[in-house]
Design goal:
- The complex is a heterotrimer of chains A (about 130), B (about 550) and C (about 325).
- With about 130 residues, chain A is an alpha/beta fold.
- Chain A has helices spanning about 20-30, 45-55, 70-80, 100-105, 120-130, and strands at about 5-15, 35-45, 60-65, 90-95, 110-115.
- Chain A is built from five helices and five strands.
- In chain A, strand 1, helix 1 (about 20-30) and strand 2 form a beta-alpha-beta unit.
- The radius of gyration of chain A is 13 Å and the shape is globular.
- The mean pLDDT of chain A is about 90.
Chain lengths: ~130, ~550, ~325
């Protein structure tokens, strides 16, 4: 799939206002050639998934920085499954304990990028695993 | 940049560069191969430096600095329930702490109560204690001798209510407000620039801040009402010179506002304090603090006509940089924190918090907290850094760097002035854009290996580190909500409603809000309800997203 | 170039016509990605278009277009209208990637089933941005939206082309930003049916308003003279309290008035005709270019031609004549 055809939703969910990581990743993905829809802060799981539907997004990316990852991940996964978006990649990044990584994957996250991950690894993962469209 | 290079264990291939090409520090200054007398030939000791404790205080705000008194070792620590937090605090006091810091959970930070539907799942979250009502504040401060213990509230937009609760509890206990000591972060300008936990638009927020400052100036003269913060600005991506410039610009704005509110500069300036971060480049950060002291002293004396020498002192609390720590090879972070702490001491900080090595992904455990504490103690007692004031003073490099920091800072001041001042610059997205650009540049420099982060972009290892983690209590949220419901059932609803109306009325007037808030919380109004009443009058702020 | 639609694509069109947002989203993606089935899909979609109100909102970055549109959506929804929004952002010419940030402002309508919002980037399309935007607007019409709002930057030629896709074009200016001057220079003001001065609570707004109204009076050379934009509407689209918003009702009223004018004076027919003319032109350009380059690709002829021009043996005009005569037997 053409990189330019990959559409990514980047968002934060809940009350946390630390958006530096989300903004930097959004910009770097754009520089890698993708279309990035940036939703910003204070989004709800329903709002994020609805945006993913409307935009026919291939990837949903969330940024967690205040310990909210185990609270919101199942809610987002639930919305994703409820709406039949199972072929959409769900990736998360940010700051959380390493032992929560397998927990989130168990919940339905496709890949977890802990703080310090380089964009290349995110871009590679997306390109390798994104669904085809057509 | 080859993918293979990143993944391999590249201990055998030491990079040719020292970690930054072409030899720039984070602030973007080109650093010379070496510095010598020609770099400081314009320096006049009397005019530009002065002895420690002498205007313009570049070398330190006290003549004897740490020989006279060590910096305050002030570590953060909070837990979700006010009762548990109270236990921990009393333990710390028994172990000899003379000051405590209180952080709040996300709902409290955002001005909402534990039963607010928006806060589901976030009550008692990582950052701190959940405060909804005056009862929570009573529980939090139970058995703590407020007459002698200094309390630091890490609160911002919700400060007026927190302060109100603090005063109400003190009054209940018969403690005169005049003897209370402590600090409130209460720096709303940096929220718009960096941390983003604002509620109302900038101008009403400033009005609330000034209400607390004026109230403290007259009623709590030993309490520091604002801790003007650069830490969050730096964490959001600003480089050291931006942190310096934006923090000081905010500080100057608060001074201007205080004067507009009818105070004389010497009435409140002595109680303004600052909060900086130290990042990894020791020299850059030492220069930052020295420049800050000179700029602040000169501005206060020459621009605002301060007569009290204490008004000119740049008093600063430091926290070592959390954003410099990695989640990979976490024990390396102990080394980073040590360098950063040393920088803060050599820079002349008044108090210091050192991060724990697991900061990158969790709230610290007792073990990692202890190491952080020991780090400060080893520097204090074993490193020799405390033997004399401003040990690096006179170094060609440090003095040249200090000057460069200062002139770059003034360049930023001019830009902000040209935009119409700090608030106008916020509304125009100036700070947000600068910070975003700096954050992006930093990440880009790491990805292109222009800047090396050990364990991340170089010397990478596959690892399985055994780390113990602190676990949150999942029951807490439902307990808190139940307690809140109980509290509301037992209060005089009519009286509370009346007080909330009163808050709204005062917001629309020119009166100081503090007395009204104290009455309101005494009548049982919750934090969320008080903020809600203010929101009705002031509206909500939503920023234009800047990239 | 075209092929019979696979069964699932025909179902897709049926779903779209019944209002499915998933179908709309998928179809828009196919069209954006220039799938081989685009033309066949559009043929099925086209008969179901032409009945929606199409409003364009254009203006410089930061002028408050998105905030205004959020209010327009709200007002239309209050009247029970279904609304579709296309928010267009330019792509980076270097990386090809795009940053689509308009949606943030619209997230207030995130959970409203009657609102469908799509962000689009320019992506360096052969036929320019305008062709795919035009197709997307048609798709949104076929989906059953009573109103389709198109938001664009209004800066380049692409954006000027988009203007023809809409019926009512709203230009958003702000005081003291100099874009009132820019707009006048670019001739955009002559295209606008309604001019809005947003952030009308800023200093200098009153003067700016006066200057603009004076200019509008002079610029009566309008795309059609029956509708003269005599007034500039001051608005405050973004305020901490809803009571402080201004001008939204006036704007809605102006849109309504313009639409009424279009329909009553039958100017709407002329506009529809112009739109179709432009669609034809866009599709022609796109298809012919694709056809020719497809024909040339693999033959090495394109490289030969370029070499020939470089070496002075021929020129672009002769080359095109030659190619056309081969392909079209003219």
């Amino acid at each position: 799939m053409n990189t330019e055809e990959i559409k990514v939703i980047i968002s934060k969910v809940g009350l946390d206002g630390h958006d530096r990581g989300a903004k930097v990743v959004a910009t770097l993905l754009k520089e890698a050639g993708m279309e990035v829809v940036y939703l910003g802060m204070y989004q709800t799981p329903e709002g994020i998934v609805k945006a993913a539907i409307d935009e026919d997004a291939d990837v949903i990316g969330l940024s967690y920085l205040s310990g909210e990852h185990l609270v919101y991940t199942p809610k987002v996964v639930n919305e994703i499954r409820k709406n039949g978006l199972d072929d959409v990649l769900f990736v998360v990044g940010g700051s959380f304990p390493p032992e929560d990584v397998p927990v989130m994957k168990e919940m339905g996250v496709h890949e977890v990028f802990r703080g310090g991950s380089l964009t290349e690894s995110i871009v590679d993962f997306i390109k390798k695993n994104v669904r085809g469209k057509g | 940049m080859s993918k293979e290079g990143l993944k391999q264990n590249s201990i055998s291939t030491v990079p040719k560069t020292t970690g930054s090409v072409p030899f720039q520090n984070l602030s973007g200054f080109d650093i010379k191969t070496s510095y010598g007398p020609e770099d400081i030939s314009q320096l006049s000791y009397e005019r530009d430096l002065g002895d420690p404790g002498q205007y313009p205080y570049v070398r330190g705000i006290h003549p004897d600095m740490y020989r006279g008194r060590l910096w305050t070792i002030r570590q953060l620590g909070s837990l979700g329930s006010p009762i548990q937090a109270n236990e921990r605090i009393r333990q710390l006091i028994q172990m000899g702490a003379t000051g405590i810091s209180i952080c709040f959970d996300m709902p409290t930070i955002m001005g909402r109560d534990s039963d607010d539907p928006l806060c589901r799942g976030e009550v008692g979250s990582c950052c701190g204690v959940a405060i909804d009502t005056i009862q929570d504040m009573r529980d939090l401060l139970y058995g703590i001798p407020l007459e002698t213990i200094s309390v630091n509230f890490v609160s911002n937009s919700q400060s007026s209510v927190i302060l109100g609760m603090f005063c109400a509890v003190a009054e209940e206990r018969g403690i005169p407000l005049e003897i209370l000591t402590g600090t409130m972060q209460n720096d709303v300008l940096k929220e718009y620039q960096a941390q983003k936990s604002y509620y109302f638009p900038p101008r009403p927020s400033l009005r609330l801040t000034m209400d607390t400052v004026t109230f403290c100036a007259t009623r709590l003269p030993k309490f520091n009402p604002i801790s003007i913060s650069g830490y969050h600005i730096a964490s959001a991506g600003a480089n050291p010179v931006q942190e310096l410039a934006f923090t000081l610009a905010n500080g100057l704005t608060y001074v201007e506002e205080g004067i507009k509110a009818g105070l004389s500069v010497d009435e409140f300036a002595p109680r303004l304090s600052f909060f900086f971060k130290t990042h990894n480049d020791l020299f850059e950060n030492v220069a930052k603090y020295r420049a800050a002291r000179r700029i602040w002293a000169r501005k206060m004396k020459e621009q605002f006509g301060a007569k009290n020498p204490r008004s000119c002192l740049f008093r600063v609390h430091t926290q070592t940089s959390g954003s410099a720590l990695t989640a990979q090879q976490v024990l390396n972070n102990i080394v980073r924190t040590t360098l950063q702490a040393l920088a803060a001491v050599l820079a002349g900080t008044q108090s210091l918090h050192t991060n724990s090595y697991d900061e990158a992904f969790s709230v610290p455990t007792p073990r990692s907290e202890k190491i952080a504490l020991r780090t400060q103690q080893i520097i204090a007692f074993e490193s020799g850094a405390t033997l004399t004031a401003d040990p690096l003073g006179g170094s060609y490099y440090i003095e040249a760097l200090t000057d460069q920091m200062e002139s770059e800072c003034y360049r930023y001041f001019k830009m902000i002035e040209d935009l119409g001042g700090t608030v106008a610059a916020i509304e125009k997205g100036f700070f947000q854009r600068e910070i975003s650009d700096a954050a992006f540049k930093y990440q880009r420099s790491i990805e292109t290996r222009e800047r090396i982060i050990v364990g991340l972009s170089e010397f990478v290892e596959d690892e399985e580190t055994e780390i113990e983690l602190r676990v949150n209590d999942p029951e807490f949220e439902s307990q808190k909500i139940a307690a809140l419901r109980e509290f509301k059932n037992n209060r005089d609803q009519q009286r509370t409603d009346g007080q909330l109306e009163e808050i709204r009325r005062v917001c629309a007037s020119q009166e100081n809000i503090m007395p009204t808030i104290i009455e309101a919380v005494k009548s049982g109004a919750t934090l969320g309800e008080c903020i809600g009443a203010m929101r009705k009058e002031f509206g909500t702020y939503s920023e234009q997203v800047i990239f | 170039m075209t092929g019979k639609l696979p069964g699932n694509h025909e179902t897709l069109v049926q779903s779209l016509l019944s209002g499915s947002r998933r179908a709309a989203a998928r179809m828009i993606t196919l069209v954006e990605n220039q799938s081989t089935y685009t033309n066949e899909l559009m043929k099925l979609v086209y008969p179901h278009t032409g009945k929606s109100m199409v409003v364009g909102v254009t203006g410089a970055a930061g002028s408050g277009k998105s905030s205004l549109i959020t209010h327009l959506i709200r007002k239309f929804r209050e009247k029970g209208k279904r609304v579709g929004v296309v928010a267009v952002d330019p792509s980076s010419p270097f990386s090809g990637g795009a940053f689509l940030g308009d949606r943030i402002r619209f997230q207030a309508h995130a959970l409203d089933e009657g609102v469908y919002i799509r962000s689009m980037s320019s992506r360096g399309y052969l036929g320019g941005l305008a062709r795919s935007t035009s197709d997307v607007v048609r798709i949104m019409e076929a989906m059953g939206n009573d109103v389709v709002i198109v938001e664009t930057l209004g800066a380049g030629q692409d954006e000027v082309d988009i203007i023809h896709v809409v019926q009512t074009c709203i230009l958003v200016l702000t005081p003291n930003m100099g874009d009132d001057i820019q707009a006048m220079k670019a001739g955009i003001m002559e295209i606008a049916d309604i001019v809005v001065l947003n952030k009308a609570d800023l200093d200098g707004a009153v003067n700016c308003l006066r200057n603009l109204e004076a200019t509008m009076h002079m610029a009566m050379t309008h795309k059609d003279c029956g509708w003269a934009v005599a007034r500039v509407i001051p608005t405050v689209a973004s305020a901490p309290k809803t009571e402080d918003l201004q001008g939204i009702d006036e704007l809605i009223e102006a849109i309504r008035a313009h639409q009424t004018y279009l329909h009553e004076s039958l100017v709407i027919d002329r506009i529809q005709a112009k739109r179709i003319e432009q669609e034809l032109s866009l599709v022609f350009r796109d298809e012919v270019e694709k056809f020719i380059f497809k024909g040339l690709s693999g033959t090495g002829k394109k490289r030969q031609y370029i070499k020939g021009i470089l070496e002075g043996r021929t020129d672009p005009y002769s080359v095109v004549e030659e190619v056309l005569s081969t392909f079209l037997r003219v």
